[in-house]
Amino acid sequence: MASNFDLFGDPIPANHGGRGRPEHMPTVENRNRVNMLLAMGWSNERIAAALRVTLPTLRKHYFSELKYRAVARDRLDAALLMKAFEAAEKGRLGPFLKLVERNDLMNFGQTSRPRVAETAAAEPKPEKAPKLGKKEEALLAAHQPNAGTPMGELMMRRQQGLNS
């Protein structure tokens, strides 16, 4: 492995400056980065772009990390819980309790339905009144005269006389 590093922290290969493109050299840091990005749900294309390599190079050098894409999130959660547990042993309990609470909520969501969803499904929603169009609203307003005007009062008395 090379002892010289470029500005990005990547090792400079031995044939640097020679003919042809130098082969990508995977580092422990890059392997950890790939694991973390897999846990965050990144696609292979996005990970390759973040590492500044092509997709075939990513598959060639990091195939063992890509193989465990399905459990990468669980591994990250386990590592976080372990760090929080070590901090809890030293007296900092807050982060550990937050992670345990988040884990419990995740487990609750996977094993049973929340009560809010059960009550919403059990109670039928009341039916809404049908929405009236412009013409129906105008017709309804015509049958209900405005009592604030003399003409409206006259029409109201006339309707009351017909209804009784």
From TrEMBL:
Residues 124-138 have a biased composition (Basic and acidic residues). Residues 1-26, 112-164 are annotated as: Disordered. This is Uncharacterized protein.
